[in-house]
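Project channel, design review

CF: Before we commit to the Acrocarpospora corrugata constructs, I'd like one complete example in the thread so the newer folks can see what an input/output pair looks like. Taking Arylesterase.
RD: sounds good, go ahead.
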Amino acid sequence: MGKVTVGQENSDLINIHYEDHGSGRPVVLIHGYPLDGQSWEKQERVLLQAGYRVITYDRRGFGKSSHPTTGYDYNTLADDLKALLDHLDLREVDLVGFSMGTGEITRYLGRHGSERVRKAVLMGAIPPFLLQTADNPDGVDGKVFDAIKESIVHDRPAYLKEFLDNFYNVDVYRGTRISDAAWQNSFVVATLASPYAEYACVDAWLTDFRADLPHFDMPTLLIHGEADRILPYPNTAARLPGLIRDLTFVTIEDGPHNVAWTHPEEVNRALLDFLAR
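CF: and here is what came back for Arylesterase:
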């Protein structure tokens, strides 16, 4: 357990909480919204068993990291990742991001380059550009995100319940791939996150990553659930082949957004095979 200071808001330091376990080649796991670093438990265990050094951290506003009211743009979030890599002096690192975490990796590469990075893994990807615009007709209508922000302001816990139901496709997988207890755990983690962060992060989802994608100059693995309701497959993952040069693409048939939890056997097999090459 450790922390790295990445800034200051008024009288308080802004600290990023991280955990650093194992030995061997380092793998950094970057969690999705609205969870924290512990959400990687089904991947951390197998990576440690395979001989990797595994680093998880909590995004600012989430988990045990500071909860400031600044910095929920991808430039700052990527700088937080850089601060962690620099603090631990990680080299030849494999970066693994889920959901919002895929944005940190993409903007980090575009902003800071790939000198420290060996491989990248994008799971439930947010790039290339989620917002529908005149030059991005395959994006999602901006009214969807306006409604999300309104829902968070009106009743954040109710919004988080609906979000997590779609995060796991509970109507399909309840009692088989997602238990009530596991769902409740995610709900508790989500409600304990910063209300400000959960609202502000919605704007970050609309970041245009298209200019960052050419900076993927390392082997990259993309894993995405075919039935993803949070970051729909046609608007995100299906558009990345051809935009990332050395891309291995694994589609989880009927998989929801958080396939790392619901389909760990398929995800872990693909992850370990890719990292071992």
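RD: helpful, thanks. The chain has nine helices and eight strands.
CF: The beta strands are 2-9, 12-21, 26-30, 53-57, 93-98, 117-123, 220-225, 247-252.
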